[in-house]
């Protein structure tokens, strides 16, 4: 298995910042308990408070794929569909 990292960004539509924040915070506990989850930290952009950033580390692509299909992530996508202006997920590998 090869460890991978993820940077996942969600930008709330104006007026939905706090609702999105609460839902994102709710993902942390269940995700940290998933098999293969090494790191799952939620951040908020200091200069753009509508932008939330997850910094994640996973044991493998398979663990990440299972996470993407988990019940709490599926429910999250449905719950916030109208609150998110932009979402982006980047899978990266560490160089140094």
| CATH fold label | Alpha-Beta Plaits
* Distance between the ends: 18 Å
**What is the CATH architecture descriptor?**
2-Layer Sandwich
Counting structural domains, the number is 1
Explain what you see.
With 96 residues, this protein is of the alpha+beta class. It has a single domain (4-92), classed as Alpha-Beta Plaits. Helices cover 34% and strands 35% of the residues. It contains 3 helices and 4 strands. Strand 2 and strand 3 (51-58) form a beta hairpin. Helix 1 packs antiparallel against helix 3 (71-79). The mean pLDDT is 96.
Q: Quick gist of this model?
A:
The chain is of the alpha+beta class.
Topology, element by element:
Elements: E1 4-12, H1 17-32, E2 37-44, E3 51-58, H2 61-68, H3 71-79, E4 84-92
Antiparallel strand pairs: 1-3, 1-4, 2-3
């Amino acid at each position: 298995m090869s460890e991978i990292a993820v940077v996942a960004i969600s930008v709330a539509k104006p007026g939905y910042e706090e609702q999105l924040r609460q839902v994102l915070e709710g993902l942390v506990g269940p995700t940290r308990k998933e098999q293969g989850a090494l790191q799952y930290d939620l951040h908020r952009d200091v200069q753009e408070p509508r932008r939330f950033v997850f910094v994640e580390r996973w044991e493998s692509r398979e663990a990440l794929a299972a996470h993407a299909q988990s019940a709490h992530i599926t429910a999250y996508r449905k719950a916030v569909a109208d609150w998110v202006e932009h979402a982006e997920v980047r899978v990266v590998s560490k160089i140094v």
